[in-house]
Amino acid sequence: MESSNAPGGTGGGRREATRQKLYEAAVTLIAEQGFSATTVDEIAERAGVAKGTVYYNFASKSVLFEELLRHGVGLLTASLREAADRSAEGGGSRVDALDAMIRAGLVFIDRYPSFTQLYVAELWRTNRAWQSTLMVVRQEAVAVVEKVLREGVEADELSDEIDIGLTASALVGMVLVAALDWKAFQPERSLDDVHSALSRLLQGRVSGNR
């Protein structure tokens, strides 16, 4: 997964590039064979680095996976926020911003389908060492949508009867699940086609009678 905030400097850039390789190796292997079956040796081999390099960057496989989740959801959150900001700068309504966020989410999932699959699976697991971290980063992503919904209600663009928290979670969940269904069962459909379908759903369900 490509980092959007690599540290400056040659040394920092090299380390970020290494961590990037480890993220990519880990997400691919874990998607293929599961977390428990994936070893640090395999991650190192897939990334093309020494085993010691994994432990230099991450204290353990669990820490690597926790940081992978944090990193990936952070990229998703940033892409959602940027989409909303661009829409606002262009004079769009809050519904336009939500629609832009749906598209940004689909673009992210199209680029990182293995990560998305892992993320959704982990949301439903319990007793994981990284569960609290996952809940925090999930809420950060949902909060971006909540902000736009709240602004829409305050500006009288959206119905004041909507449950902002639940609606935000539903919109994020809709994009995640619909996109995974698209990638797994309807890969012949284009991103534009899937976005159009979700956009129509958004217009009908969120805009209401405004």
Automatic annotation (TrEMBL):
Q: Which InterPro entries match?
A: Homeodomain-like_sf, HTH-type_TetR-like_transc_reg, HTH_TetR, KstR2_TetR_C, Tet_transcr_reg_TetR-rel_C_sf
Task: Specify the DNA-binding region ranges.
Answer: 39-58
Tree of life domain:
Bacteria
Point out the coiled-coil segments of this chain.
none
Could you tell me what this protein is called?
TetR/AcrR family transcriptional regulator
Residue ranges occupied by any HTH tetR-type domain in the UniProt entry: 16-76
Pfam family name, one: TetR_C_24
